[in-house]
Amino acid sequence: MNRVIIVDDDMIVRVTLRSLVKWEDFGFAVGADFSGGKAALEYFKSHRADLLIVDMKMPDLDGISLMEQLQAAGKLPVTVALSGYNEFALVRQAFRLGAFDYLLKSDLTAGSLAKLLEKLNGQIFLETAGEKKAAAGGSHLFCLEELSGLYGILLFEVDDWKRQTARFGENLAEQLEKPVVELARQLPRVAARGRLEAIDPLHYLLAYQVGDKRQYHHTICSIVRQLQSVWRDYMNLTLSAAVSEPCEGEGMYAALQKNSDMVKLSVLYGRGAVCTEWEQEKELEAFLACRREENGLASALYQADPVFFQQERKLFFTKLSRMEFQAAFLYSLGFIALLAERFRQYEDDFSALFAEEFSYREKLGRLKSYRELELWLNNYFRWVMDYTKNRSAGGQAADAIVKARQFMADNYANPELTLKSVADFVGLNEKYFSSRFTKESGMTFSSCLTDIRMQQAKALMASTDFRMYEVSERVGYHNVEHFNRMFKRSFGVSPGDYRKSLTKHQEI
């Protein structure tokens, strides 16, 4: 069972989360819950957890601070952020720290929580998904603890999953999963030395007993190619694979977890990719680093948010510019794999970005300088932004919200900027625009405008010696007292004290 820790200062939220679903049915157990970040931090000093569900705003130690301290201590588990509609800026910070997903408190239902847990099982806790399936009486997925000796752990994932699930219909267990497993078991080498089972219709686990360790790399890759050939010839189905080094005991579970990350690198190579622990180590490190640090940029691109994108893009390229070219190249590949993971999290088809399949690894490998890499990435980001703006039937309305946010970013200094004036600009009914804006942005129009103005105010205080009334006027406030109240409400400190802290920092 994966151990879950819940941290929220609202007792009702904690009780609701505990009672919405039967956690054990999904392979989870709630180990403890806490009303504040300090108590949770103390708990983590002597306990571990697999999943942290944490509120973004708490009086003693907020969710962001808790994540930062756990990350610094190397104890941050997979994290889901809890937020209100007006706290999306905090969710963005959580994504930058590596949060897997977020839940809106106003949308907490058994269905939304169950969907999140299924997503976690499908993308992070793959071994849990298998245990759950076996407990439900489906495929009798073997337990790795049953195996003794050296084994190679392989994870196969169905490529082009969206088209394939539609092609095989509703009964995936019979139409897809069963023939994949039966065909594999007919291969003499798999039957003699391997244990292969379905984790779910899109993922298959093979434990292969190692004979001659010196020949392992050659042997296991040969077996992978043979399996891929059989599935392709008899089912017109391609599967990518992640392959571990030989391991034993508890190391097999660690290898499976590592493979669940490594198989996501297959998007860099194309369908039928084989990613091995000994060949893709550096790519995997770059991907995991991006998962910790670049969730903000991935979210901005997926949501086609130009304001947020420009902020995150600058940070990304600043980081790249400080790297050696080879490290920047690998980090760029890692980010593409992260972006593909973000598409998958929302059940969107990353392969639909381009009409023709190609190898990102090969394409970026032709670039010879940082300047070429930066140019390619900028063009790529523009392409992704154009695609995500228009990918759904609701694209027109979503595009209107994007235009609205851009209009707000360009005109925040106008004190007369209102919900109605922005709704008129994008051509939507005021009431519908308000509702749609909140849904698309994760915060109300008023909260978003305030957030833009406050961020600009901080930037002005850091880069100019404007007096406070001048800063107030330049970010859209006639009344400096009102500006002071809004600033303190947003950051917990007055504008004057914030500027003093900047001065002290500069002196140090």
The residue-averaged pLDDT reads 86
CATH superfamily of the largest domain: Reverse transcriptase/Diguanylate cyclase domain
Secondary structure: number of strands: 10
User: If helices are DSSP runs of H or I spanning 4 or more residues, what is the number of helices?
Assistant: 24
Helix coverage percent = 55-70%
Alpha-carbon distance between the termini? Answer: 49 Å
CA radius of gyration is 25 Å
Structural class: alpha/beta
CATH topology of the largest domain: Alpha-Beta Plaits
The assigned CATH architecture of the largest domain is: 2-Layer Sandwich
> Numbering strands along the chain, what is their spatial order in the largest sheet?
2-1-3-4-5
CATH class of the largest domain: Alpha Beta
Q: Stretches where pLDDT falls below 50 for ≥5 residues?
A: 136-140
Largest beta-sheet details: 5 strands, parallel
The gross shape turns out to be: globular
Percentage of residues in DSSP E strands: 5-15%
Number of domains: 4
Note down, in words, how this protein is organized.
There is one protein chain. The protein is of the alpha/beta class and 508 residues long. The protein folds into four domains: 2-123, Rossmann fold, CATH 3.40.50; 132-279, Alpha-Beta Plaits, CATH 3.30.70.270; 285-389, no CATH class; 413-507, Orthogonal Bundle (Arc Repressor Mutant, subunit A), CATH 1.10.10. It has 24 helices and ten strands. It has helices spanning 11-20, 37-44, 63-72, 88-96, 110-123, 126-135, 161-168, 172-185, 188-193, 216-235, 251-262, 281-293, 295-302, 306-321, 325-345, 360-365, 370-389, 395-411, 419-426, 430-441, 445-463, 468-474, 480-491, 495-507; strands at residues 2-7, 28-34, 51-55, 78-83, 101-104, 151-158, 194-200, 203-209, 239-243, 274-276. It has a five-stranded parallel beta sheet, sandwiched between helices. The chain has a five-stranded mixed beta sheet with strand order 7-8-6-9-10, with helices on both faces. Helix 13 (295-302) crosses helix 15 and helix 18 (395-411) packs across helix 19. The two termini are 49 Å apart.
